[in-house]
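Ticket #4471: structure output looks truncated?

Reporter: J.K.
Steps to reproduce: submitted the chain below (102 residues) through the standard prediction queue, then opened the result file.
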Amino acid sequence: MHDDLVQKIKSDPNYHQLVKVRSRFGWALTGLMMLVYYGYILLIAFNKEFLATKTGTGVMTWGMPIGLFVIVFTVLVTGIYVRRANKQFDDLSNAIQARVQA
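Returned output as attached by the reporter:
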């Protein structure tokens, strides 16, 4: 019975679409996140002077807003993934479940 269910799911075109779309989207967001994070780490490693430069007459340096951007970007990327997962990915999952149970 379990193997039959697995075969039904694997043969469903919505399953193949779900795997393809979710994987591509996940890797795209992962690439963006890695670019931002490792870009910040490389900036710390190779251009400390820039990060230590003050933004105005106060005490804040460029490192603080750039670091904050990395944190906010992480939250935004997570929110984007969750929103799309709750909309498109859940719809495809429900369609797969409906076809398999029928």
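Triage note (M.O.): checked the attachment and the full token line is present. The chain has a mean pLDDT of 91.
Status: closed, working as intended.
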